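step: validate -> pass
step: tokenize input -> pass
step: predict -> running
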Amino acid sequence: MSKQHSGNIKVPELALVVLVGVSGSGKSSFAARHFRRTEVISSDFCRGLVSDNDNDQSATRAAFEVLQFIAGKRLEAGKLTVIDATNVQQEARKSLIALGRKHHVLLHAIVFDVPREVCAERNNARTDRDFGDHVLRNQLNQLRHSMSSFRKEGFHNVTTLRGVEEINTVTIEREPLLNDRKWDHGPFDVVGDVHGCLDELRQLLTALGYEFSDDKTTASHPEGRKAFFVGDLVDRGPDSPGVLRLVMNMVRDQTALCVPGNHEAKLLKALQGKNVNVSHGLAETLEQLTHETDQFKKEVEQFIHGLVSHLVVDDGKLVVAHAGLGEDMHGRASKAVRAFAMYGDTTGETDEYGLPVRYPWARDYRGGAVVAYGHTPIPTPEWVNGTICLDTGCVFGGSLTALRYPERDFVSVPAARMYYEPVKPLAGAVGEVPGDPSDLDLQDVVGKRQVTTELMGSVTIREENAIAALEVMSRFAVDPRWLIYLPPTMAPTATSSEPGLLEHPAEAFAAFARDGVASVICEEKHMGSRAVIVICRDADVAARRFNVADSEDAGVIVTRTGRPFFADKVMQSNILVRLREAVGRAGLWEELATDWLAIDAEIMPWSLKAEDLLRRQYASVGASGVASVRAELSVLRQAKDNEVEVADLLARVTECVPMLNGFVDSYRNYCWNVDGIEDIRIAPFQILAGESGLHALTAHDWHIETLSRLCATDEHLFRVTKHQTVDLADHASTATGISWWEELTSAGGEGMVVKPKQVVHRGPKGITQPGIKCRGREYLRIIYGPEYTASENLERLRQRGLGLKRSLALREFALGIESLKRFVEGEPLFRVHEAVFGVLALESSPVDPRL
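step: predict -> pass
step: emit ->
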């Protein structure tokens, strides 16, 4: 019953290895020689964890609870795990076998068969061991009774090491599982269920660029691509043997890979002479095989028998299984894995057609790998959470489809005719797989989370921030299918020491220069409200790319917190129409090879979104301040006329008058009545993304030039963003940039944003700020109050802390770029929302809003 090892034991790279032997048989020494310290979980060590005594037998129950927990966590993470305990009792092994099955890993027992005398001598030599000879005798009896039952218990492999010499000389070799082809990077053409449709398969391979041998029994791609068959090669169609011959030869020639389908499993049983129900097209295949040689049928039997339930390729980024596979089963091996991979996850019920009801596992899939599968015929492929069904019902008169990977596009050929009448209408299967992509799963966003970004690595989202974001997302946000990006907050410049100023461009220029930035773009800061505009060329694009089939506008305009920008839907519709026409006139659909765009912009007037804020806060402060100062001045002047000594107080109150007037003038400068679209101004400053790729990281001068052409097509709706390029190594250039800022702010402008020309720059401490805002003296009067420029107030404000705001700006920038990147690359919506939600969550951090 033991596996022959010939001095070498092969252990799967992912397995639960159970060492079995009496106390003193050498298990711990063996484990230390052949496995990493972290891979071995010792029962003695766990006893010590819970009782401070490795040999405290009264702590055994608690120790094994700890052991099982640690082992479970390792197996869950896909780590080889070795259990170092006596394990001579079947009951002790039973719980370990259940643990291995739960995590779908192979179980390997290594049995230490060592003479009793050797074990007794070793135990006697240990001062920390104090148990009678009867304990060792009982353990040996339990081991002897177990020797013939290991495989029946559920161990896949059993190796017995007999004697001390064999234990000391044996070697361990780790081998990958049969489903592990992570080293194979393709590229691949994943082909859906063929079901004996040989002509269509040849047409599809030709369309994919494959070249056939003279006898058309094998094919290869001149660029080294590999065909990848999802199974169900046979049954129902006109030439199952021809399909088998072609696929078998391509696999032999290493130009194709293949996983088995449920129809291959049934055919294998028939070829092995087992009892099978000859239905669902098997009769046709068996009849076709009667015209083939016995040698061919034997080769078919061997080929199917050698197929592995699923394959993991391209560093784990692509998994192919006939009926799909949940993330917890990827790269694992068990009966449950094989059953899921070949038959799907069924509920145990049958539908009105007598077919099994399959659980829509793809709706809940949250894995990082693309899962390509077939099994359930659907009219057209549809991405669901990173999974794709490729069975488009060729044998039922549909089409034969392939996914080109990693390109993620599809190639299909129509069936010549309906070869087999489907039991269930083809269109009826669609509802079995896809879910509603607009649904948000609470488990995707609650609790403390780590969001991995390409720019900054892991970004932490705290639980309390996630709760606040959930409130906004669930109650106020637009249709989440449109939410592919939220803009980051902007970091303010370092506090200036210039007299009477809190912010000045010199500090922004110096900060970028210290980080090694050569040149920056200074962009006019519009006093409006931040908006993200997503616009599609037409409703068909909205349905195809955003899965919004009922969108009359084929686009959306949202605030920086994901809410509808316009309460008036007619206003949004009219603006989107104008935007769409402008993009067309500017030729950007063709130039950018896209049929949708995401644009970052400011929409004016400020009062359009800030009317309540103006009415409740700024206007009331201005009105009450002016009224109170007038009253104070009246009283003080009367007192002065009565020769009361109030000169100093009168002077201080008099100084408040221009401050209050400046405060009122400042916010009024950015407000005007809006009666219709003609009163709206849009200042686009960045093209975020389109179908051809991510544009947000393209140099800023490209955005300025491209968007200036867009603005020129509708000069009434659009406002061009003025800009200056500054060479930070050139004193004259920086002086020009400062002068430009002074001109903007003295004319009533808010200020400017200083950005590294190349968008992403890595300085000595990591990513440099993507933008630093530098606001003018009078604009800051709105933010900090009418009297902020008084010397005592200004000195107090110069102590403001900027660290948290700067940190937020960087983290939100990284998350925003990550969400766009994931959407452009076709990742599932839950992955896009993970980053979008992260931006919204960070916005609830307790930071001074005036920064």
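step: describe -> Residues 427-438 have pLDDT under 50 and may be disordered.
step: cleanup -> pass
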